Amino acid sequence: MKIEKARKQDFAELMDLMHRAFSAGGVDHDRFEELYPDLYQPTSESMGCNYIIRTEGKIASVAGVFPLAVRIGDTRLSIAGVGGVCTDPRHRGKGGMTALMNRVVEHIRGDGYALGWLTGERDRYARFGWEKAGSETVVQFLKLRPQDRALHWKVADLHPARESLDAVLAARDALEVKGLCDDETFRLKLQRKHMQVWQASLGSAFAYVVVNRKFQWLAEWGGDPEGVRALLNHVMTQVPLLNIAIPRRRDRYASLWQSVAQQYGKAVENLAVFDLLGVLKAYKPHFAEAWPRSQAVHLVATDGEKTLMSAGITDGKPQARAPRGAFTVRLPQLRMVSFLFGPHSPSFLLDLPPEARWLDQVFPLPFTMPSLWRV
Ligand SMILES: CC(C)(COP(=O)(O)OP(=O)(O)OC[C@H]1O[C@@H](n2cnc3c(N)ncnc32)[C@H](O)[C@@H]1OP(=O)(O)O)[C@@H](O)C(=O)NCCC(=O)NCCS
User: Fold this and answer.
1) pLDDT digits over 337-346, tens only?
2) Ligand 1 mean position to 124 CA, how many Å?
3) CA of residue 77 to ligand 1 center, whole Å
4) In order of start, what are the domains of the chain with their CATH numbers?
């Protein structure tokens, strides 16, 4: 099967195919260029993120790989996000997706990404290295109680296509957990279909929220926590409920979520580790905070008898070799993803001896994929 990268002139055909493929079986799927205007544009750069296979000259299968950057405290992650994987209903079951996913994995490795992320069924992507993992909590609000209302804030719509985003961008600067991109891409993200942006001000204080109205998700928030509270209060007059995935890390919004949450759940998506040492290096700031003194671990990811990747950490410092006297965690590749990223703690996942229970202090690693960065 010949695999190519899509080109600028393929835009219309590709968008039609993706819409057709995702709408098969009577699903009312939105068009991708409306859902993700920041990802799908008629440019060489944008189209070049998509691997395609043609049958008789027409695009039959596609898989996209998008570079994503996320900050979680002092940890900065470069992630390969995979999205828009589909095959024309007339050409399914012929190995199109499989060939493209193999190519996507090669691309991710070739570009040196340590981590891959995607949404979708576990079984479909497990054979390419992705496992359901993650440590976020999903919180749901149904209504705010009178005592949760923030008074005096002035709430207004914000139209990202034509209004200044200066105040929003300034508020984003202070966010500890956030997706990273240039300002124009962020403006496009705010225009993803179903998103609505609201702002609140009180004197010089400012806050904003971005809500996905169709799926009733709080996609992003920033600025003064009391302003966010006022905005939630306003949004809850317009939607019946609101979900939000909150990072495991405590930040200035944590007590707000705790005070208004009515339901709690866990969020998991598919994560793949392509470079174990690379992942550990990215999390050095986390280890610097959490690592217990004079402890060491040796992590080995396996495929049957074969070692795929291995790395060590001693005193919070990642290294290529096994540290002396380290506790060894040897796991198949997918289980290693669970060990690193949860949702369970190491002592739930493994039968750890008491002297290794300290691993629960460090793992799972905090990971968040901000809603507007999903592909
Ligand atoms: C899912 C989809 C991309 C598969 O495309 P395809 O080109 O027919 O896939 P392939 O022929 O390469 O692979 C089918 C193989 O994957 C397996 N597979 C596909 N979906 C699977 C799933 N959910 N669970 C387990 N295995 C799955 C099949 O059993 C088959 O295995 P085989 O190679 O051992 O025979 C296609 O059905 C599609 O476009 N669906 C609608 C859009 C969609 O849901 N995309 C995924 C979004 S996350």
Assistant:
1) 999 999 999 9
2) 6
3) 29
4) 3-118 (3.40.630.30), 138-267 (3.40.630.30), 275-361 (3.30.1050.10)
